[in-house]
Amino acid sequence: MIKDLFKVPIYVVLIVSTILFVFVASCTDPEDKAVKEDLENMSNEDGSVIDSEGNMGEIIGNLSSPVEMAALIKDNGVPFSLKYLSNPDNIDQYSTKFDQALGLGILGADLGYLNIYDRTTYVLRYISAISKLSEELSVSQFFDFETLKRLATNNENLDSLIYISTSSFNRMDTYLREMNRADQSILIVTGVWLEAMYQTTQVVKQKPNEKLTERIGEQKLILSEIINTIKRYQSKKAFKELLDDLTEINSIYEKVKIEYQVGEPETVEIDGRLIIQQNETSIVNITQDQLNQIISIIERIRNKRIQLNN
Amino acid sequence: MKKLLIPFIFLLVLTTFSIDSKAQCNDQLVNDCALNVGDNATYIKDFKAKLKGARKGSAPIATFSIVLNKGTHYRFTVCNALEYEGEAVLQLYDANNTMIGSTFDLAKGKDYKAFDFMARKTATYKVYISFKGGLEGCAVGIVSMVR
Fold first, then answer.
1. Whole-complex ipTM
2. Range scoring the smallest mean pLDDT among A122-136, A140-154, A279-293
């Protein structure tokens, strides 16, 4: 019987082993497994509405996108400038998990800015810094650094570079929340927000811009959400200090007024695509003095956080 | 002849597996969907939804929160995992629980792979993903920014 096994043709052995290899590999891919488990967890036996954010519903998705603010800046005709970015060579200053998570968010916003401006020459330095910080935080498995480096080096397929960068941050964020590390997740979100705010306020400081000013004013809502989440961890000293910083920013935002005008959305179909125009609008009322105070305070706090002390 | 047959079968097996992997309910589905949202659209976020079939008449719905910014042109795209029967419907609601948009037009009985939303109010919105007829299904919703 055993002797007969050796008579099996070699190509049959090759095919069977390939099938087995592919099958085992697909079953044991930890990332796929995590995603499958994640998806399974969303199922609800009684068929009721499921909060797919589950326990992590404490942080709203897309509170601060690494690319949205940068895209707005670019679309308003603002030229590229490295001075709006943090120095990726200074990451050794991020010595605690707290600082590393905040720093990862800051560098994530910078990477988003570079990607939107298609400045792949500088991207590699930021990818390397993000790689180091993500290793420190044990979340490097969500970043395909080799692919990111290849895309940046060859200056190929910018869409893929943006997609891989952004989705890596999203997947890492989901993982952190699921692993009861939502404290690190909100720090990364805060880092992204602070850096994006720094970039925008610095642009407006140099040259007034109505749309960017409005976006700065609207951050009142986002800041409020961030503060509410940070408050949950204020028993820890570092979080309390960060909360104090954010509360200081919020004290200016309390004077910024946002009004709403109601309206029904309109839907049209153009070339087979549905386009929905929202007619409910928000109007931001922010004075020049309030704007100046926000610019100043963001600059101070952001620079303190990246330890520039200027 | 046998020399030609072996690599042919080998390739056939690998091709079969790679085609199948595209349809699966995992990150590959997100990748495939995110990279097909349109030339002028930039990926922002994805939502994964895998739901079991309806029981006792009520269909499960996956719900997510997202902040959308005034002045931004968003695109909501939905993609189904082919190994499931369920066809996903993605709906966008505002904070008052008023539906703003859907990939399924109930009046016309027509499905859309995506819809565009021109936001004029910065706020937190809700994204719901469900499957028609309460069938079991797996899908991803992609939010992208059109520029």
1. 0.82
2. A140-154
Report whether A111 contacts A84 (CB < 8 A). Answer: no
**Between A241 and B26, the higher pLDDT residue:** A241
Instruction: Give Cα separations from A119 to A43, A55, A254, A278 (angstroms).
Output: 42, 38, 37, 34
Instruction: List % helix, strand, coil for chain A (3-state, nearest 5).
Output: 70, 10, 25
Total number of domains in chain B:
1
Check pLDDT > 50 for residue A21: no
Whole-angstrom Cα distance, residue A242 to residue A224?
A: 14
Q: How much is the pTM? A: 0.82
CATH of the domain at B141: 2.60.120.380
Place of tokens 């190929």: A156
Residue with tokens 């080998």, as numbered in its chain:
B10
Of B6, B45, B103, the CB nearest to A11: B6
Domain ranges of chain A: 63-257+287-305
Task: Return d(Cα A217, Cα A113) in angstroms, integer.
Answer: 20
Residue of B nearest to A41 (CA): B50
Residue among B32, B43, B106 with most chain A CBs within 10 A, to mutate = B43
Q: Are strands A257-261 and A266-270 parallel, antiparallel or unpaired?
A: unpaired
Instruction: Return d(Cα A251, Cα B70) in angstroms, integer.
Output: 23
- The alpha carbon of B144 is separated from its chain's Cα centroid by a whole number of angstroms, namely 12
Across residues A56-72, what is the average pLDDT? Answer: 77
Residue B10 lies in a domain: no
Cβ of A221 and B123 within 8 Å? yes
On whether residue B113 sits in a domain, the answer given is yes
- Which pLDDT score is estimated for A289? 98
Q: Are the beta carbons of B52 and A45 separated by less than 8 Å?
A: yes
- Domain membership of residue B33 as a residue range: 25-146
